[in-house]
Each structure stands twice: as structure tokens, then as C-alpha cells.
Specification:
By secondary structure, the chain is an alpha/beta fold. Helix content is 34%, strand content 22%. The protein folds into two domains: 152 residues, 3-Layer(aba) Sandwich (Rossmann fold), CATH 3.40.50.720; 108 residues, Dihydrodipicolinate Reductase, domain 2. The chain contains nine helices and twelve strands. Helix 1 crosses helix 8, helix 3 runs parallel beside helix 4 and helix 5 runs parallel beside helix 6. The protein is elongated, with a radius of gyration of 20 Å.
Amino acid sequence: MAKNKRMKIMIPGAGGRMGRMLVRTLHDDADAELVAASERPGSANIGKDAGELAGCGQNGIPLKAELEVPADGASAVIDFTAPQATLAHARLAARHGIPMVIGTTGFTADHLRELRHILRDVPVVMAANYSVGVNLALDLIEQAAAILQAKAYDAEIFEAHHRHKVDAPSGTALAMGSALARGRGVSLDNVAVYAREGVTGERHPGSIGFSVVRGGNIVGEHKAMFISDEERIEINHIAADRMVFARGAVRAAHWLITQQAGWYDMQDVLGLKR
């Protein structure tokens, strides 16, 4: 692909763990390039070269305190920052008609309503997890839940992440719970149990329980369990390297820039929607 046809990507939060991995992924992608990068105001990384920070050599893109669209435009924004920052980046993307790939988690319902309103006229992929394996697992969980019904199988979601993760349960765990609830034809809001402490009484039939571990440098572990008196079925995913999320997000961007305005997820990107 000719250089002027390469996908041009903007990355806010390019000095963070995921931001650096996105920069490295773009460096390795012959059909994409980084054209703008930013970091939160006050960060010690402002002014530094994004490629050098990511460990892939200087690329001439300095981290700025505010995300700026280059004069010759951009193909997409890939955002793994924080809810308020993502809302600000969404306003920028909407003003310039730039598609957006969102990996940020921890949004409130009000945040999500505002985000959808801001981005109503551009293509968006938003997913709790950009791993291809996790998204295949979500599809399998929904199928399993339709067969392993609540009257015979109790359902539980387990997840573990590193000590720095700020939201719980994780977005991926919630996505697993939603897939499970969807397979059973119920709303997760009506059946989720997020905490157990003290004398809780017997397990409520049909509930979906969540358990959370935070510690060390765990990249991400997720498990859906269907438990009967006679057997236990588990659909498990373990991420060994965060690069799997960066590669999935860049894959989503390649797909997104050919789509019409709308709201998509990784199930759409991978063609798993039935």
C-alpha cells in the first residue's frame, strides 16, 4: 500500500501502558502510521517522542498535552484513556468526522448516553476487550447459556487483573455476564450479584455471580462457569501479553474506516454477529 494510503491513527494517552503498545503495533503495521499522540496535562512524558517511549525508535511524533488533528487529517482515533478524557477526545473526533475505536472502561450510564450523542454521526467501535480470543469466548458463552439453562446450571463469572486496574468488575467480565444473560433471555441488571458477605442465604436461582481478584501484574484472566450438581463447564480466557489488546484495536480501526456511521463492537469486526 502506498504511503499516502496508509491508515493514519491518533492515540491519546500514548505514554501509558496501552498507549505505548498501540504505538508499537502501528510501528509494525505496514498499512498504518501514527500521526498524532497526546498525554494528560502535567505528564512528564509531554514533549517526548512517542516511538522512543514505546521502545521502537524515534518516529517524529511528540506527545502533546492536548490531542490535535494534523493538517492533512486522520483516519481514526484509538482511545484507551479514562471516561472524562474519552468524552473530550470524542468531541474532537465528532467535530472532524473521524472514526473512533474506544477501549476505555468504567463509564457510567450518563457517560455512555453522552458519548453516543457526541459520536452519533461517525463510525465507532467500542468494546470491553479487543482480544480476538475473548470475543470468540463471548460468542461461545452466549451459545452455552442458551443450552445450559438456569434451572439446572448456576452461572458465575470470575476475573483477575493487575493491582493498578481501577474498575471492578472489569468491562470484560461484565461483557461475559451480558452475553450469558442474553443467551438466557434475561437482563443482566435483574440477575447480577456483585458482592457476597455475611449470612447471604441460599443462592438465588438464575442469578449470575461475579468474583474479582486484583494483584501483581496479572494481565487479565476471565472465566464463565456453568455449574450443575453433576458437572461444571468452564469457558476460560487468559491474556499473557497486553499486545493482544493493541493488535485487536488496530485491527478494529482497519475495519472501521470502511464503515458507515454507527455503533459497532468487536463481534461486528470479527463477523461473529448472528
